Each structure stands twice: as structure tokens, then as C-alpha cells.
């Protein structure tokens, strides 16, 4: 009888299959790290006003949000995950080199006016973010069809999260190498630096895309007798109170990570007057500490209450970090290295548990998972886009005159400290009222990254 039960247990994926799935988002991750960390700095460095730079980012964010919800619905209906993934990666690679490699429409028209540059970079941002969404939603939702084994599913998602952090560390290593080279501050040299970073990032990401496409099988999904896909109606999710609670947790977590990542490089350069290499070193420390914490979290036995507790711990830690960012003076800028470790820990605690809550929401309703990921991503990108537009619009492109012994107000300091801190606090309050249906799920018997 025991043998029959063992035969009924879905077969676990091998380590090679987990690895090839996990690296499938690397191109998205390395370009996303560059987008959020350096796009604002890059656009203002080459002469765009903060408001024009904000227009580029919010245009991309809205394109990302719209494509996310459309791609989620189409993937639920028709499947073909790998085709969506490959198409998205191609758009990302082509547009990213234009986004950070120079304004292509400017070269075609022969004009570098602010209007032409803004429109040109907006076009590149729309293509980039649309491709990014196609890759993200197809990759996240296909894990439900790759394996029926619950431990293997968690292993795949955990492997993907680990490579997200590795991708960010690779990007910051490239940035440290590029920005540490001696060069003049002319716009030509600045563009060459970012162009080199973009080309290296695309090459590394493309290697992992090929690995994913060759090593991962297209999932076979449920179909009715007439050949149509079996899907869960979106109204099913909208009637669940838990959907809105998890939506709030996920969106607030993304606000914390995206807004802080966007203003971090500008903060350490303009507000703390740190060296140019610090705009690569500080983010690298954050992601390294996040990676270490994420690996340690795999050994825990997860339950709904533990998800809530660790999310709350991360949120309260971010609240402390936000306060420290607001009040940190220039002559104590070395403390930013310690603060970056704490930010990395807080980010890992919040992101891992927020994604875990998404999994608790989907549970066994696998045929509508793309809608869940797509709809949560849609709200996240719209809200983050609005936040970033208004915050970036009022940001100064030049360092604010300030007494080194006292913190002085700037939009960057407010954006990096206050917005993520308050968002984290609201997330902790929402988490307190969440009640999961399975408060004591069966613990995993294998490490998440095994």
C-alpha cells in the first residue's frame, strides 16, 4: 500500500531542471536592476531635465502594467509559455541597447533636442517594458505546469529568486568596473560607459536565456474536449478578501524595493557626496546581504503565521532604515555601508514572504495563476510608476548645498527614506489582519535550493 502511495506522488524534478528553469529570468533581472538603479541618473547625466526623465520612466511603467495584464490573460487562454518568453527576451535585448546605448530616433532624425530625446527614450522604454512583462508573466506562471511536485515547485521559485539576486550582483560588478575607470565627465564618455554596461549585461543575460530555452520543456496544460484551455474566471479571484490583502502586501513591498532602488544611486552621490564607485558598491552590498538571508530562509518550516511574522520583521526593519536615511548627515556617510546591509536583510524578508503569500493565495487553483501574477503586477507597476513620476519630477539634478554635519531636506532623501518606510509600516498593519486558510501546512522535507 505504501508503494502505491509513493507511485501516486508526482515525480520530483532533478537539479538540472530546477537550474534551467531558475535562470530563465536572468535577462529580465539584470536589465531591471539597471533600469531602477541607473536610468534616472543616466538620463539626467546626459542632459534631460528631471521632469523629462520622469516622463520616460512613467511611460515605461504604464506600458509594463498594461502588457502585464494582457499577457496574463492571453497566456491563461492559449499557453505557449516559451514562445512568450522568447519573444519578450528579444524585445528586451533590442530595446535595452537603445535605452542605455543612445537615443536611436535622435540619430535617425539628426536632432538632440530635449523633446526628440524624451520621445526617443519613451519609445525604447515602452518596447523594453512590454518585452519585460511578457518574459516575467510567462516565466512566473509556467512553474505550475513544469512540475506537480510541491517541493520542486518551491525549489524552482526559490532558485529563480536566488538568480535574481545573482543577476543584480553581476550588474553592480559590471557597474563598479565601468564607473571606476578614469574618464572625463562629458556626455560622450557618460554614454560610452552606460553603453558598455548595457552590452555586457545583454550578453550575459542572453546566455542564460538560451540555457532556459534549451533545458526547460514546454508545460502540458489542461484542455477541454474541444481543445480549449481550462481556466479559472477572474471573477473568482475578485470575490476573495484574501486576494485584496495579498495584493496590498505585494504592491507595498514592490513600492519599498523599487522606489528605494531608483533613488539609491542619486542619494549616495548627491546627498551623501560619496565616491562614484559607491553607486555600484552600495547596491551590491544590499543584494549580497539579501542573497545570504534568502538562502538561510530556505531552512525554515513555513506556515501562514511565520510568513506574516517574518514579513512584519522586515517591514519594521525597513522603517528603522528609512528613518536613518532621512537623518544621516554627510560627515557620517560611511554608516551607509552598515545601513545597506540592514536594507538588504529587510528587502529579503519582505520579498520572500510576499511571494510566499502569493503562493498561499493561488494554492491549488493553478489554471488561473497567470491572472493572479498579472493583476498584482499591473497594480504594482501603475502605483510605482505614479510614485516615481511625481518624486522624480521634483528632484534636483544637482547636489543640494548642505552643512556636512546636519542632514538637509531633498526630494531624493525623502523618496529613499520616507516613502519606503511608510509603505513598509502599512504593509505590517495589513499583514496583521490576514488569515490564511491553511495555518499549519505540511513542512517541506527538502531545502528550497536542493
UniProtKB/TrEMBL annotation:
Domain of life: Eukaryota
TM ranges: 83-106, 118-142, 162-180, 196-215, 280-297, 309-328, 334-358, 370-391, 411-434
Gene Ontology terms: cellular component: plasma membrane
InterPro entries: MFS_2, MFS_trans_sf
Keyword terms, alphabetized: Membrane, Transmembrane, Transmembrane helix
Keyword Nucleus carried by entry: no
Keyword Oxidoreductase: no
GO molecular function, one term: symporter activity
GO biological process: carbohydrate transport
Protein family: Belongs to the major facilitator superfamily. Phosphate:H(+) symporter (TC 2.A.1.9) family.
Protein name stated in the entry: Major facilitator superfamily domain-containing protein 12-like
Organism field: Anisodus acutangulus
Amino acid at each position: 500500500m505504501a508503494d502505491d502511495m509513493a507511485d501516486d506522488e508526482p515525480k520530483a524534478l532533478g537539479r538540472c531542471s530546477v537550474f534551467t528553469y531558475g535562470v530563465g529570468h536572468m535577462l529580465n533581472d539584470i536589465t531591471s536592476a539597471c533600469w531602477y538603479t541607473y536610468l534616472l541618473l543616466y538620463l539626467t547625466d546626459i542632459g534631460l531635465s528631471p521632469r523629462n526623465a520622469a516622463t520616460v520612466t512613467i511611460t515605461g511603467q504604464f506600458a509594463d502594467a498594461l502588457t502585464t495584464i494582457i499577457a496574463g490573460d492571453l497566456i491563461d487562454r492559449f499557453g505557449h509559455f516559451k514562445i512568450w518568453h522568447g519573444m519578450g527576451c528579444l524585445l528586451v535585448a533590442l530595446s535595452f541597447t537603445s535605452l542605455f546605448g543612445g537615443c536611436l530616433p535622435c540619430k535617425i532624425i539628426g536632432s538632440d533636442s530635449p523633446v526628440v530625446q524624451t520621445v526617443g527614450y519613451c519609445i525604447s522604454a515602452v518596447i523594453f517594458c512590454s518585452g519585460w512583462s511578457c518574459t516575467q508573466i510567462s516565466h512566473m506562471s509556467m512553474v505550475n505546469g513544469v512540475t506537480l511536485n510541491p517541493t520542486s515547485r518551491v525549489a524552482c521559485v526559490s532558485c529563480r529568486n536566488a538568480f535574481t539576486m545573482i543577476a543584480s550582483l553581476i550588474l553592480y560588478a559590471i557597474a563598479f568596473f565601468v564607473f571606476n575607470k578614469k574618464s572625463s565627465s562629458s556626455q560622450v564618455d557618460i554614454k560610452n560607459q552606460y553603453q558598455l554596461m548595457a552590452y555586457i549585461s545583454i550578453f550575459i543575460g542572453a546566455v542564460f536565456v538560451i540555457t532556459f530555452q534549451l533545458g526547460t520543456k514546454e508545460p502540458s496544460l489542461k484542455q477541454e474536449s474541444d481543445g480549449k484551455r481550462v481556466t479559472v474566471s477572474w471573477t473568482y479571484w475578485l470575490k476573495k478578501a484574501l486576494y485584496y490583502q495579498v495584493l496590498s502586501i505585494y504592491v507595498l513591498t514592490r513600492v519599498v524595493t523599487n522606489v528605494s532602488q531608483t533613488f539609491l544611486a542619486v542619494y549616495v552621490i548627491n546627498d551623501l557626496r560619496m565616491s562614484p564607485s559607491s553607486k555600484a558598491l552600495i547596491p551590491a552590498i544590499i543584494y549580497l546581504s539579501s542573497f545570504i538571508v534568502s538562502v538561510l530562509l530556505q531552512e525554515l518550516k513555513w506556515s501562514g503565521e511565520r510568513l506574516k511574522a517574518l514579513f512584519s520583521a522586515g517591514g519594521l526593519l525597513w522603517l528603522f532604515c528609512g528613518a536613518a536615511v532621512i537623518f544621516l548627515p554627510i560627515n557620517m556617510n560611511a554608516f551607509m555601508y552598515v545601513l545597506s546591509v540592514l536594507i538588504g536583510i529587510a528587502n529579503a524578508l519582505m520579498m520572500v514572504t510576499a511571494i510566499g503569500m502569493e503562493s498561499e493565495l493561488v494554492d491549488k487553483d493553478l489554471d488561473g495563476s497567470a491572472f493572479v501574477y498579472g493583476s498584482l503586477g499591473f497594480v504594482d507597476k501603475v502605483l510605482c510608476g505614479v510614485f516615481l513620476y511625481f518624486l522624480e519630477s521634483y528632484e534636483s539634478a544637482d547636489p543640494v548645498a548642505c552643512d556636512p554635519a546636519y542632514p538637509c531636506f531633498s526630494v531624493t532623501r525623502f523618496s529613499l527614506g520616507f516613502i519606503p518606510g511608510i509603505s513598509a509600516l502599512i504593509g505590517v498593519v495589513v499583514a496583521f489582519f490576514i488569515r490564511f486558510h491553511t495555518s499549519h501546512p505540511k513542512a517541506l522535507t527538502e531545502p528550497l535550493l536542493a
